[in-house]
Amino acid sequence: MPQLARRLFVLPAELEGAARSWIEHGERTPRAARYASSVVLLRDSPTGLETWLGYRPGSSPLGVLAFPGGSLDASDDDAVGWLGPSPQHWAEQMGTTDVGLARRHVVGAIRELFEETGVLLAGPDMSTTVEATSGQEWMRARVAVADQEKTLAELLAKRGLSLRTDLLKPLVNWRSPDFAHRRFDTRYFAATVPMNQKPSLLEGKGVWGRWVCATKAIEERDTTNLGDEVGQENTVGLTLSQLLVPGSEIMLEKMAAANGCIAYLSYKRKPHVYQPTLVEEDGKLMLEVEAAKTVAGDPQRDR
Prior knowledge:
The protein has 303 residues and is α+β, with helices and mostly antiparallel strands. It is built from ten helices and 14 strands. Strands 2, 3, 4, 5, 9, 10, 11 and 12 form an eight-stranded mixed beta sheet that branches. Strands 1-14-13 form a three-stranded antiparallel beta sheet, with no helix packed on it. Helix 2 packs across helix 3 and helix 3 crosses helix 4. The relative contact order is 0.22.
């Protein structure tokens, strides 16, 4: 296992009430966490790795700004064309014995990525991916899947496509803190954009989303530049730590330290569950996470 370091993060304002209640009433049984999947979309640029971040309205357990993702659907269990590693292999990679759940996480990851960005990890065979998914017909399909009027399986079957699960790479498993009222048990995956596809916002629902340079975001983490750019009531005047959940911020750090997409994706990660815990530091409530150290210049840094 990588060397773990104790890290402290800001407690988001919307979690303060739940945190105080948790302490005052004594620790109770945590609420059940909903299973979720998220995809860290990556591309190389002259200034380093870039990733797609989007604004999430409300108080999402994934953060105000987050990688594409969301809760698993019942439809993620549907029979669907499947190319790439078997669900059994995915379960082993993810460190779980529940093969069905591992399969749902993979399907959910590809579905959420398609809904939120239009990037579709699918093709007719192992050597081909679908191209040009940014037209109006595809946008209508995205809206239909997002509104649960159509399932991803139906959409793919109609077009003779199968999931290209080989285009996903497992990253880490993050769980919301025990005291939170809305909790996610999220599996993060990474992927690059297939040829002739490009991410775009979901019509009528997307507020803000764009490619963000990981190095720049980390360098400017103590400024309010990104939050001010998003321009929403709950982003203006906020720093990176106030916009992202700890898991997202740590992954952004790893991207900033990685030497490009191939280096980031090829690192062998061991299955590990990360979960912030509530601690009091100098009279202030904070989130504590044990996470691998990121050391500049260390070839083993990208964990």
